[in-house]
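Two records follow; treat each independently.
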Amino acid sequence: MKIRTAKIKDVDWIVELFIEESRKKPYNENWNKKIAKQKILEDFKNNKVFILDDKTNIGFIMLRETLWEKEKIGHIELIIVSSKNQGKGYGKKLLDFSENFFKKKGIKRSVLYSEKGSVAFDIYKKRDYKETNLVMMEKNLK
């Protein structure tokens, strides 16, 4: 089993997995293939994308670095493991990879977004990710 850098040839698989997992609770998103592909291609430009591979693709993670004041911050933009492979520790392997990836770059803080009520949220809390005082806010523009 290895984690490798994603290639453009992986985009269609990533799109399919992204759509499939985004439709489930608590996310309930309804991406169409064309828009999802545009999103993933844009993500390839702005993030480092890695695939957990064991002769078949198991899951993927997207990572990005930003600078905040004088500190570099590592962002886990997206982490998805296929349904048939969930509950086997693969998400934890991807988290371990991301933390080591950031540490090697001298990054001392990793952040991510998570939906309360998701299985992932509980996993992140067990891994010592803490809720912050920052609140994501949104407004529908008409």
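The next record belongs to a different protein.
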Amino acid sequence: MSPLWSSEAPLPPGVVKEVDGVFASFVVAPISVRIVRRLLDTPVTPNHVTIASFGLRILAAYLLLAGTWAWNLLAAVSLLAGFTLDMVDGQLARARGTGSNFGAFLDKFTDRVSEVVVYGGAAAGVAGWSDESAATIWPLAYVAIALVLLRSLADEMVVTQLKVDAERDVHRDGTLTRALRAAGVDDTRQGGTWIESVKRLLWFSEGERLAALSIAMLVLRVDLYFWLVILVAGPSWILRLLEKLWRLR
């Protein structure tokens, strides 16, 4: 992706994650990197950006309460702007070499809290249409929220597993990678192959979730988004969590 911003001064290596969600890598990263360049010589800190990102996503949740297309459009813009800043905070910290445990915690904490609040705002907006809508949307929202929190736990298990494997000097492939290899498919790790992109899409990272939710908001079918999380993404998250727990036993 470097040609997209090659006309500007290069940032230090590692500022942009080599492996990230597809939406984050190909849609948001070209924007976030430009913002990082403009913030490098300012007093703005990564934690300031994290708080701004959090505020935009909470604003999106508030706008969703209206449940109308116009307000949902504004909510989608606010939500995606917040996600862009969510990428900026980490990139800015890496560019300056000022990352901290507190900053990492604040980023993760605000990500999960804001996503739960956005789901609640989206559900409340739909519930305002009628009692029948309320009876349908809230159970879907609760299950989707639970699955997203489980996915966050699975992410932590992945990080823990990587640390354990590093200490043991071993490498363990995931279920999908082993299946691809058994089928004779070359799975180049982190090499930008279509296989890697498919695996990242199946993992339904935060960028993919917020993009899909924004589309669902604009077509006034938030329920379809919740079903997508429950029926498509949820099972893979649960399986990955169980797999990581099994490996760490």
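Discussion point: Confidence is low (pLDDT under 50) at residues 1-7. How would you locate this feature using only the token line?
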